[in-house]
Design brief:
With about 130 residues, this protein is mainly alpha-helical. It has one domain: Four Helix Bundle (Hemerythrin (Met), subunit A) (Up-down Bundle), CATH 1.20.120. About 85% of the residues lie in helices and about 0% in strands. It is built from four helices and no strands. Helix 1 runs parallel beside helix 3 and helix 2 packs antiparallel against helix 3. About 25% of the residues are buried.
C-alpha cells in the first residue's frame, strides 16, 4: 500500500505543476487579450503547448503508475519512475520557453517518454 502513496504524492506534485502551467496560459491570455487560440502570438503559443503537452502525457502515465503500484513492483523502481516524471515535467516547460533545441526540453521530453515506456511495459508484464 505504501507504493500507491508514492503515486498519490507524485500526482499531487504534478497537479501543482499543472496549476502553474494553467496560470502561465491565463497570464499570457490576459497580457495579449487573446481569449481563444494563440492569435499568432509566440509567447501564448509556447504557454499553450507546454500546458497541452503536460495534459497529453501525465494523465495516462499516472494511471499506469497507479495500476503497477498495486502489483508486485519494486518500490525503488516506482520511486525512480515517480521522481523522473516530476523532474521531466519541470524541465520540459523550462526548455520549451527557449525557441531552439535545448537540453532542458530534450531531457524533459526524453524522460517523459522513458517513464511512459517503462510504465507501459511494466503494466503488460505484471498483467501476464
Amino acid at each position: 500500500m505504501q507504493d500507491i502513496h508514492m503515486v498519490i504524492l507524485t500526482a499531487g506534485i504534478l497537479g501543482l505543476i499543472f496549476f502553474a502551467l494553467t496560470c502561465w496560459v491565463v497570464a499570457e491570455r490576459n497580457k495579449t487579450k487573446q481569449m481563444l487560440g494563440d492569435g499568432g502570438r509566440k509567447e501564448l503559443e509556447v504557454a499553450i503547448r507546454a500546458h497541452a503537452n503536460f495534459a497529453e502525457f501525465v494523465p495516462l502515465i499516472l494511471i499506469l503508475m497507479a495500476f503497477i503500484a498495486g502489483q508486485n513492483i519494486s518500490p525503488g523502481f516506482l520511486a525512480v519512475l515517480c521522481g523522473a516524471l516530476v523532474l521531466a515535467r519541470i524541465l520540459h516547460p523550462l526548455g520549451i520557453r527557449i525557441l531552439k533545441p535545448n537540453v532542458p526540453r530534450a531531457v524533459g521530453a526524453t524522460l517523459t517518454w522513458l517513464v511512459l515506456l517503462a510504465c507501459s511495459i511494466s503494466a503488460i508484464i505484471l498483467s501476464i
